[in-house]
């Protein structure tokens, strides 16, 4: 009897519109959801009956995702770990879309070695709206969760009522817009997609697009013992470089808040200002001397290359460490996680530069 656990954490998927038209928080009523799912996708209902799938749910956190904080990542990870220990064979996490990419990355590091699918999804519109995408997204997430080819944390999303979902790796995905299919895999192809083979075929199938990355993540999880590692240290600083960025902000934050780590999102070519009063060089040197690791990500796509321009070389020589092709949405939770599991600055750097969950190139 396969066991499927729904981990509900809040968000639009379980919300509703108030008389003023605003989306407000509401409980995701499982019976209502199951009825809507059965009505829209009767084939899944038959699959549940045929395979005798046992459905259960839990709510470790209930918030709109803009209010999710690192401690909530730990609570969600703990609930997933407990579900696995209780014998769950597949897990779907219902989550708000705004910060889902951050949560999916955080869970990837906290639940390394997991041997079952953990699929995150959400919706653009509440379940009770006529043209909601919530039922489509949940259907597709469950379909992927019941496929044992997936071992790890993935994000499944369509955002459009009548269009099947894409499948993204949890450490490689970004929310790019407010509407429609708003998630995209960055610096890699998406893992897969749910598609029909032809226009006349009604059965939707899971098509693997990036078999190499899927196999890599599977291997990384199979080689590790599954354990809960959900300690986080959220005392970090993040800055996005822009023309006129005052590097004094770096010094102020370091002196006032004493962060344990820092991330700079620089221009695509790995550069930032290194001349005049806006130069960041002496501040990087000073922060580095205080035993605080400084990491570099790119503002858009691509690998951070620090050996093309003089300015980027100087930034690297001052002590900033490029994170290859890791995206910022992954680097932030990974740094918090690394700080919670490292004994020294060197350990933090080693963890950040190691491909643990498919988040970067080897």
Largest sheet: 8 strands, mixed
State Rg: 21 Å
Strand order of the largest sheet: 4-1-5-6-7-8-11-12
Number of helical elements: 11
Structural class: alpha/beta
Compressed to H and E, one letter per element, the order equals: EEEHHEHEHEHEEEEEEHEHEHEHEHH
Distance between the termini: 39 Å
Determine the strand fraction and express it as a percent band: 15-25%
Instruction: Kindly state the percentage of residues in helix.
Output: 25-40%
Give the integer mean of the pLDDT values: 90
List unreliable stretches of 5+ residues. none
Number of separate strands? 16
> Per the principal axes of the C-alpha atoms, what is the gross shape?
elongated
Commentary on this structure:
Helix content is 33%, strand content 19%. With 362 residues, the chain is α/β, with parallel strands linked by helices. It has an 8-stranded mixed sheet, sandwiched between helices. A 4-stranded parallel sheet has the order 13-14-15-16, with helices on both faces. The chain is built from 11 helices and 16 strands. The longest helix is centred in the N-terminal third of the chain and has 16 residues, at 70-85.
């Amino acid at each position: 009897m396969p066991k499927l656990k729904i981990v509900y954490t809040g968000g639009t998927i379980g919300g509703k519109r108030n008389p003023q038209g605003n989306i407000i928080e509401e409980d995701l009523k499982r019976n209502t959801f199951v009825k809507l799912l059965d009505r829209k996708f009767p084939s899944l209902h038959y699959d549940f009956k045929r395979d005798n799938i046992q459905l259960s749910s839990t709510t470790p956190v209930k918030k709109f995702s803009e209010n999710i904080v690192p401690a909530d990542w730990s609570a969600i990870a703990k609930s997933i770990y407990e579900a696995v220990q209780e014998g769950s064979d597949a897990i779907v996490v219902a989550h708000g879309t705004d910060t889902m990419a951050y949560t999916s990355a955080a869970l990837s590091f906290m639940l390394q070695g997991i041997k079952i699918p953990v699929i995150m999804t959400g919706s653009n519109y509440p379940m009770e709206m006529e043209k909601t995408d919530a039922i489509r997204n949940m259907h597709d997430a469950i379909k992927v969760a019941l496929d044992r080819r997936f071992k790890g944390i993935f994000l499944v999303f369509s955002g459009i009522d009548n269009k099947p979902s894409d499948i993204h790796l949890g450490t490689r995905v970004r929310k790019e817009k407010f509407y429609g299919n708003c998630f995209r895999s960055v610096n890699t192809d998406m893992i897969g997609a749910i598609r029909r083979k032809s226009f006349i075929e009604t059965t939707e199938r899971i098509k693997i697009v990036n078999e190499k990355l899927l196999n890599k993540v599977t291997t990384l999880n199979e080689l590790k013992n599954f354990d809960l590692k959900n300690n986080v240290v959220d005392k970090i600083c993040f800055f996005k470089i822009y023309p006129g960025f005052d590097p004094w902000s770096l010094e102020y934050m370091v002196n006032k808040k004493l962060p344990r780590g820092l991330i700079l999102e620089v221009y695509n070519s790995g550069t930032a200002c290194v001349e005049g009063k806006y130069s960041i060089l002496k501040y990087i040197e000073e922060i580095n001397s205080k035993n605080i690791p400084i990491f570099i990500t790119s503002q858009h796509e691509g690998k951070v290359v620090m050996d093309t321009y003089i300015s980027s070389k100087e930034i690297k020589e001052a002590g900033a460490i490029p994170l290859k092709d890791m995206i910022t949405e992954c680097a932030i939770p990974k740094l918090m996680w690394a700080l919670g599991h490292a004994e020294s600055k060197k350990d933090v750097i080693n963890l950040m530069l190691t491909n643990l969950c498919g988040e970067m190139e080897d």
